[in-house]
Amino acid sequence: MDREQFRVAAHAAIDDIINHFDSLPDRRVLPTIEPGYLRPQIPENPPIEPQEWSEIQADIESKIQPGLTHWQSPNFMAFFPASVTYPSILGEMYSAAFNAPAFNWICSPACTELETVIMDWVAKALGLPECFLSTSENRGGGVIQGTASESAATMLIAARERRARELTLAEGVKDNGSREYEDRICAHRARLVALSSDQAHSSIAKAALVAGTRFRTVPSRLEDNMEMTGESLRATLTKIEEEEGLVPFFITFTMGTTNTCAVDRFAELKAVLNEKESWKRIWVHIDAAYAGAALVVDEYRHIAQNFAEGVDSFNMNMHKWLLVNFDASCLFVRNRTDLTNALDITPTYLRNPYSETGTVIDYRNWQISLGRRFRSLKIWFVMRSYGLNGMKAHIHKGLALGNLFTEKVKSRPDLFEIVTKPDFALTVLRVRSSAATPTASNGTNGTNGTNGVIKHDVAQVDQKANEITKKVYELINSRGEIYLTSSVIAGIYVIRVVGVSTQADEAHTLRAFDILVNATEEILRG
Ligand code: PLP
């Protein structure tokens, strides 16, 4: 493809992409194809001769579109969203064109320097404490990772190395590259335990798996809205230390758990960690992958104050709710040296005068892989195109749609019960088992109206409610008009609804509620 062919092809592709976005509200959100649908449509071997772009492009509509799940559809209400906007796409285009795997500063200084500045912008937009800025005295700073999973694994490795080193040095063994030092580090690594609440995302358990450490969960309870409490943490830490003789070294607190958007009780948890010297050494990582986006609006800003002290790292995915396409996982660390101590391996071919002076950032030492993409461009484009006010408006719109859906659910106490406190535009509900008996309606709406605490007047594990809710969920998804996710919380089968796509508006929310009611009534009628 030469430059003129590229010009024509790119214009055609852009037109196609715009039409794709326009067509989304009318497309089924879930595809109807069966597994393996694509192979018979694609030649078994790559083409021998070059093909025209028009021929290649045509296959998008005929072969790819039928197999797409439309995450950008306003009817996508499953998992958490994955946003994309036009300025973000433009950022990807430039990034693809420059294509510099800028692992060291010299490999493309603009790539490194823009990332440092833009991560400071993001930190300020979220109201994160000063300690996470690249300009902070404590040598904090942000780095863009691919995913929250990668961020957690990277932090866990940094924490592992920090703790193993501390324990080794405390024994009087010097860090001099000796066999003895290596043996002690390995011995200590084997005793380390990473923790999170039982509601934390599975990526935390996976991070421990990747880092080769043990992992334990802190139990949460429905009565506590599935938030991690200080009491539960204390009991778990005590057991690990006193009964198991192991060393807790890393804990993830979540702002917005995947199941229910619960927010762990940060102040209470940090107070517990301050109770013992060994607990003060635990690396605290905040996983705010989805809900962290809400820190841009005033109502949620106070949460970030909890991170001023006693928190080592914080992560938020702009690619979930904050208008930047996948991948844009923003990771902030209080002390970059913890990271570089763990991950800096510098063979001769990676040395250069700039790195040697220590005056530049080489982001390869802040991540697991060497090469990296120019991801800050798309964040820069989005933050400038929307401005902080545009970003706030986007979050506010999502919150309003979430509230609308919650209110609609509450308006049908005969059918539904809200299971956990709705937050960050997520509603977690189940069908009441009493709905299955014609006369039944206890007239409550699942909350007692104070502080959003849920009053559970129905037995938690109600098999009948579980069965009906599951059937309703499966019926809705089988029709593909909207796409929802289910989960099981404290034995309760629930449906999660979160519809905050950039194209979503009230009409989509109301339609989704009607679909929910109709499907429920259909199941109840048998
Ligand atoms: N943390 C939370 C709270 C999540 O909800 C998710 C995914 O939804 C993740 C982490 C993992 O995100 P990623 O796909 O960026 O690894």
UniProtKB/TrEMBL annotation:
GO terms for biological process: amino acid metabolic process; carboxylic acid metabolic process. GO terms for cellular component: cytoplasm. Keywords: Decarboxylase, Lyase, Pyridoxal phosphate. Its cofactor is pyridoxal 5'-phosphate. It comes from the Eukaryota. InterPro entries: Aromatic_deC, PyrdxlP-dep_de-COase, PyrdxlP-dep_Trfase, PyrdxlP-dep_Trfase_major, PyrdxlP-dep_Trfase_small, Pyridoxal-P_BS. GO terms for molecular function: carboxy-lyase activity; pyridoxal phosphate binding. The modification N6-(pyridoxal phosphate)lysine is found at residue 320. SUPFAM superfamilies: PLP-dependent transferases. The keyword Lyase applies. Belongs to the group II decarboxylase family. This is Aromatic-L-amino-acid decarboxylase. It comes from Talaromyces pinophilus (Penicillium pinophilum).
